[in-house]
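Hi Prof. W.,

I finally got the UDP-glucose 4-epimerase prediction working! I wasn't sure whether to trim anything, so I left the full sequence exactly as given:
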Amino acid sequence: MTWLITGGAGYIGSHVARAMAADGERVLVLDDLSAGARTRLPAGIPLVHGSTLDGELLKRVFAEHAVTGVVHLAARKQVGESVAQPTRYYQENVGGLATLLNAVAEAGVQRFLFSSSAAVYGNPDVDTITERTPCAPVNPYGETKLAGEWLVRAAGRAHGIATVCLRYFNVAGAAEPELADTGVFNVVPMVFDRLTRGEAPRIFGADYPTPDGTCVRDYIHVADLADAHLAAARRLAGGADGDLTVNIGRGEGVSVRELVTLIGDVTGDPTPAIVEPRRPGDAPRAVASAALAERELGWSARRGLRDMVESAWQGWLLHHPEARRA
Ligand SMILES: NC(=O)c1ccc[n+]([C@@H]2O[C@H](COP(=O)([O-])OP(=O)(O)OC[C@H]3O[C@@H](n4cnc5c(N)ncnc54)[C@H](O)[C@@H]3O)[C@@H](O)[C@H]2O)c1
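And this is what came out:
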């Protein structure tokens, strides 16, 4: 197999590319470097600098590298931005995917893995989200992921491509400090950011119907997520056909308050959080059932929350040396 990893210079993609290469797979990366960095990839993994919107380039890459499988992570991922710029999100996330799937079908590639998201579910009122929980995204970002899944499955059926859609829950941590997420869009870096500025972390809403009143989420270590890709790639390479859509989470709920307390412990800065009003659109609870992934992929998460926070903090310190305490 030769795997093309789109978005492989990004936070999650670089973990996936390294994990697959370390497992002996031949991999190459396509990334437009709009949010990724060449330095995330070791010398042995070739990088094609270009976009999934460039059909001619994709055609050349498939032919020149004899690609036999695709792991598609390239996408815009900021919810707020998707609300402000929905056409851009549909164009890049759905249009880019359609262009890519055209090239996949033309090149006769028969294995395709798609980065989906728990955002496809919206805010379901259930204790545990299974793959049968109805999908009802509440923002354009989530809509592009759901439309992406539809497109992946339809193209799979039409062109005989075996497909897997992985619905990631809240991704955190880093396998190595230099691979850490450099954006401040998720709760862990957001809290680091506040502490680094000498400000109190913020909790949005403490009156939810949850044990401590703050929102509950399912956090997954990015290295475990990379292992899930490896398991899915092996399933595809092993000749599995049809499509599979699975949650990738730990199946364990953690409240924002618990997370902030742990971050205080790990960073040595226990500044108490301040409670602000709820943000519109936040679900009280979003926790995955991880059973199907275990059954179908033989995969389950191994790393815990402390490991996620500690490794994310090491990565944060690399990019924000001013955060280091004497
Ligand atoms: N980070 C999370 O918590 C999370 C959760 C669920 C799903 N996801 C999905 O996982 C994937 C990777 O997310 P990430 O957190 O690593 O984000 P990221 O921004 O770090 O990585 C995305 C990569 O794709 C590249 N890219 C974007 N558009 C491109 C295009 N049109 N052509 C080529 N390259 C392009 C960017 O330069 C970047 O390197 C995305 O599809 C995202 O929607 C992420």
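The pocket of nicotinamide-adenine-dinucleotide is lined by residues 6-7, 9-13, 30-36, 51-53, 73-75, 77, 92, 96, 115, 117, 168, 170-171, 186 (CB under 6 Å). Does that look reasonable to you?

Thanks,
D.
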